[in-house]
Structure prediction request, 345 residues.
Amino acid sequence: MEKKQSRFLNACRGLPVDATPVWFMRQAGRYMAEYRAIREKLTLLEIVQRPEVAAEVTLQPVEAHGVDAAILFADILLPVVPLGFNLEFVKGRGPQIDNPFRQETDLDRMRPIEARADLGHVMETIQLLRKELSPEVALIGFSGAPFTVASYVIEGGPSKEYHHVKTLMYSRPDLWNSFLGKITEALTDYLLAQIEVGAQAVQLFDSWVGVLNPADYREYVLPHSRKILQAAQGTGVPVIHFGTNTTTLLPLMKEAGGDVIGLDWRLPLDDGWKILGEDVGVQGNLDPLALFAPREVLAHKVRDVLNRAGGKPGHIFNLGHGISRHTDPGQVKAVVDMVHEWTSR
Ligand code: CP3
Prediction:
């Protein structure tokens, strides 16, 4: 049993908390000088392959800003490597895969993964972190959602139009489903392994699913997302289900699963929570670019999110998406302090 309760975990479970918990998506990264110092010597993939370094980077924002949760330093694309895809992070172009999935015969070069062995360095990072973190700071594990991970593997990198994704989905739904089935199986194994070795909550990132309308989400994505979400929820740890541009998808995302649903900044938090219903928690939803506003404007916007949450149990304060790399860390710390101070009870 934990000596001191984590307010983040309590909020995920809809329990009353002493103050609203706060953390930030992409809270470890290039906006922090401490991270840039390590990145001068090591690539992103080298960091994640060295558990001591990955753990150190995970802890940087906890120490600097006093957030209520640490998110494992890793990347949603790591599991595609043991699946058989070549992953590289190219400066200025983001993730690149030079052998993308495009046709039936590509299924044959996909290998089944064994996350505990194939991604053993990630598991070691989690174990180190659980020893180093104090009990009131929860450790969040994560995985990409089937759609978002598949979209990188099919496009071979980031995309605006999702031309190859939608071509495959609409013209070969059978192949789409076989491919997503394999991806889902691998991601599920990866997520369950993280929970087994010590992740105390997990987040499923479906960052780009907002390019679909509700009918396509229901047909091509929901069955796959539901599988991984239900498997994770079956372990008893809280599960956060996140996406962006999802205003019209929220009821279906709730149907797919999750104890907490992430809201981006495009709709007011209370409107989002009303759509979802009070039987799930919500995470969000400050505009990440609000961190570039003068302090009083930022304060007003933080206050607005908190007012809309109305102090109801089940709110976790976060941004609507990841922190921009140009953010001033002082602004991040200021938000943590505002949230804690204004909600402490
Ligand atoms: O602090 C944290 O949030 C934990 C670490 C984390 C990273 N990636 C490290 C990372 C997490 C949770 C992710 C998730 C991730 N990765 C997502 C979903 C989250 C989201 O923002 O929607 C996505 C879509 C990816 C894929 C990915 N990884 C992209 C598109 C990029 C390139 C972005 C860029 O600006 O170059 C990455 C690289 C990446 N992953 C960085 C970090 C800190 C960039 C920093 C670097 O190169 O050092």
Remarks:
- The CA atoms of residues 109 and 145 lie 21 Å apart.
- The pocket of coproporphyrinogen III is lined by residues 25-30, 39, 44, 71, 73, 75-77, 89, 94-95, 142, 158, 205, 207, 321-322 (CB under 6 Å).
- The beta strands are 69-71, 87-90, 94-97, 138-144, 201-206, 239-243, 260-262, 281-286, 315-319.
- The chain has 15 helices and nine strands.
